[in-house]
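> tool_call: predict_assembly(chains=two)
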Amino acid sequence: NAGVTQTPKFQVLKTGQSMTLQCAQDMNHEYMSWYRQDPGMGLRLIHYSVGAGITDQGEVPNGYNVSRSTTEDFPLRLLSAAPSQTSVYFCASSLVGGAGEAFFGQGTRLTVV
Amino acid sequence: AQSVAQPEDQVNVAEGNPLTVKCTYSVSGNPYLFWYVQYPNRGLQFLLKYITGDNLVKGSYGFEAEFNKSQTSFHLKKPSALVSDSALYFCAVRDISGGKLIFGQGTELSVKP
């Protein structure tokens, strides 16, 4: 039972480079989301999706793009990385409808130099 | 807009003493409330949730939480703290429309022998 799988676990980017953080879940969850975790800031919601083809912005969406072509996958794209995007990124999934708890991946530690 | 506040950045407790980690929330309508724990360099693990019904909710590892609608609070408690409870604790809220899950900034719990 894989749950939520994030890749890569670690990444170093140069300013201006682009990359995609991958997130996949095998629990048939409609709701998926991306968070960033910074010291003293908690987890801040970047983007979320309530099903394939449906995405919406969270609290800190600038500089990030998402798409949801399948139920299983929810990639997060950084088009032009900036040092301010240095953070730990978590993907989460849950059943839509609110009552179900979210399951989290192990995180991606991203450093932009 | 939804929001969660954890007023204490850090809580220090002696082993064997009771612990409380505070959380207050703001949401339109009735909330779904969650507590998660994060150990160093790990993802978030679900502890417990309040959906409806009894205001005292019991969860994993002996933790419980009390929902207080009039005070819009959902404090995490444990009767007798263990050193192994030392971790980062997050409170989260989702409105019953089933949309985005919003987290507080986290509280670092330190339990000393």
